[in-house]
## 1
Amino acid sequence: QVQLVESGGGLVQAGGSLRLSCAASGSIINAMGWYRQAPGKQRELVADITRGGTPTYADSVKGRFTISRDNAKNTVYLQMNSLKPEDTAVYFCVAKAYGVSVFDWGQGTQVTVSS
């Protein structure tokens, strides 16, 4: 089981930026990423990244968000620029250890973007 500790959420005005961090412990991590869930909506994948550094983004955040990771620290980051009110959600860090088929989840961190 992977233990995940998230940080970096907060309140920001539209057009601003935030950087989320997530440190994983307990296993050697394969894929890592970020989901988000807004009120009344399904949880959706925002971005993920392979251990080799290949990222994937939801269309809604392409060009604005950047995912990266530091394998030595088992940490994944989400740099969020040009934030929009529709980005408001609880953001969850996810990670998958080698040898398992499902993600472990962080507790979530609130991101609120005001207009």
## 2
Amino acid sequence: QVHLVESGGGLVQPGGSLRLSCAASGYISGIYSIVWYRQAPGKLRELVAFITSGGSKNYADSVKGRFTISEDNAKNKVYLQMNSLKPDETDVYYCKAGIRVTGAVEAASWGQGNQVNVSS
């Protein structure tokens, strides 16, 4: 029982920045990862970045050096700071929680999606 709410999207000019947030509620202790994805209509979904409960972070090659994932455990939030945005990064951005219910059972919960438009 994990619920994710996303915010922070909108319109930004090429080269600009946005920060997305993903707020979790419910069975917080079961979350072992938060993953950011993005997808445009008619295109494949792309993994952008993820963070694990152990603090490990990783990024897609296309965003390394420009995007940063971080967490605020006190607020049960994960952020995706996006800098130097490009027009082809106009996508719907999603956060997903990987949830470990028991040692043998896992689940996932998705946020509602956050539209990011990169355009002059």
## 3
Amino acid sequence: QVQLVESGGGLVQAGGSLRLSCAASGGMFSTRVMGWFRQAPEKEREFVASISQSGCSTDYAGSVKGRFTISRDNAKNTVYLQMNSLRPEDTAVYYCAADRTFWPGELRVLSHYAYWGKGTQVTVSS
């Protein structure tokens, strides 16, 4: 069983930056694709970014491409989301997710991921 704990959320002014962290436990971190999703009030949870097991491959939603950077440190069992140039529409609860070890599938869909953190609130004021 994988446990994920997000941190780093908070209140920031538009144009500012935040770095989210997700600490994983339960083993086999380096064999799992990691993802970030977010959910705003009255909206569906949506894909933000994903990163391959080695960290060599990343993918981003069009709305965050060029502003957000996902990374991972397998030695620390941690995945990060660096968020720059934040906008009010980025306001949401951000969730860290992990898939099953070396699990194939579409990385942009929620159903791919087996494990989820409880989320961290990001609020961007105008």
## 4
Amino acid sequence: QVQLVESGGGLVQPGGSLRLSCTTSGIIFNLHDMGWYRQAPGKQRELVAGITKGGSTNYADSVKGRFTISRDNAKNAVYLQMNSLKPEDTAVYYCNGEFDRGWLGGRNVYWGQGTQVTVSS
């Protein structure tokens, strides 16, 4: 059974920091590209940051320079360090894992249940 479990969300003041964690089970973690998405009320889910199985990273323009994604293959975990948080960062943050099926075609996609991040004074 595949599980992705997020933690670390909460309420923080503007300018503050949070570190989200996502622990996984049931997958070969080091073969998966991992990412963090977020969804604010009334908006579509959007990619925040991604990290490939090889360690390459990419970020949404809105979080570049403020957020850092990292992974620990030994712990089957991916993290999102969020600094200089803004009210517009308020959303439910979801952990995502994807496995490229190669010659079989397509990708296996997994999601966590989400963790709420609220940035407010």
